[in-house]
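Usage

Read records sequentially. Each one opens with the input sequence:
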Amino acid sequence: MRVGIAGLLHESNTFLPRLTVYEDFASTSLSKGGELIERWQGAQHELGGFLEGAREFGLTAAPALAGFAVPSGALTEDTFERLAAELLDAIDAAGHVDGMLLALHGATVAQRFPDADGEILRRVRNRLGRDTPIVTTLDLHANISPAMAAHATAIVAYRSNPHLDQRERGVEAAALLHRILRGRAQPVQALETPPMLIRISSQYTAEPPAKGLYDDLHEALAWPGILSASVAMGFYYADVGEMGASFLAVADGDAALARRAAKWMAKRAWERRHEFAARLPKPEEAVRRAARSGRTPVVLMDVGDNVGGGSPGDSRVLFDEILRQGVENSLVILYDPAAVESCVRAGVRGAVRIGDLPGTVRTLSDGLYVETQVRHGGWKYNDQGVTAVVETPQRHTVVLTSRRMAPMSLEQILSLGIHPEGKRILIVKGVVAPRAAYEPIAGEIVLVDTPGVTADDPGAFEYQNRRRPLYPLEMDAEY
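and closes with the structure output:
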């Protein structure tokens, strides 16, 4: 049996003024036909899992299109329409398929379609017809919509943050599709969306309170008749009607069972909603704590400038506080193409200034690096553009990149000849996702309440389109 393999993934932060354009996908990852297999074969990503699962279950992979761009603003109308058209054309070019494996994010927003993932699924469904099963994978940060649940035969979301199970979920999706095609499963799914947000700082699935959500999920998976279950903690940087946590269950021919499982998981989460409150230290407190710590390096997570959530990665709030307090020997990565150009002109060992800070160019790099271990995002080949490493008299190391890159791999700095374990403070532009890379060398990890378009507190944003009431923005919300 032939199964289509496709993916279109983007996490869209609607509070960013810059919109996402087609070139953002083309310059990051956009492959069609046989190129898709070459690009994603063996990757620690759901697309790699699709391909592995197809081989394992004797399915013939019919590659269509796979596109990805670094999290950023909403897609322009032209970008969405062009990508959607190319996806459908690629599905047609792949020939007849008996089923489809489709990787989406679940928090993609386009100018014309706030629920862009639901619209993609609608168009794919219309192209393939009602009888062709479509099994869809989603990110754990999806804002799952009724349209997504209606147009997908079954949805399988990641269960780990950092996302270390992407390949596993891809294989699971392929296994489920195989069962459907063999007539061994008749999936029906139910979606529950209680009126609640889960702060990004509380979304680390290895520890409470988030761990409890996935303990419940695994309990639901053990119920007889349940084929799959998902908890999506949502993405509150996308101002859309579906924004918030969602709970989904897939049962074998039993709609009532699917509803009961989804509602049970949602009710359990709602009963513990107060546990997801968080108080993070401000920059001054966090830097002071890091300066006194006997466990180094101290990783300071710059929550408000989280590249993985769409932030630009150029904030100096934490670095400036380190300079103000006179702490030495830190490392920070900043997206600053203009500064990179200045460093290139100065050359290795040349004197430069980063704002009002003097420094010396230590190295220049093409910014390419390879990650072979399982890391958040499932990426193997990475490109942060031409990169400069600048050292200051206070032993600070400033890495300047010409492309935005989320800090999911320690190779981002190891490839530059930097030894991070020798630093007192590492500023990391993330929240939970970088933990997989940095925990092995960190003495301590501190999430910091910094400002920006990925600030931890959802109360910092002015929403126009979200549903109301929504806890904790409305404390009297009921479910």
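Summary fields computed downstream for this record:
- The longest helix spans residues 77-93.
- The chain has a mean pLDDT of 97.
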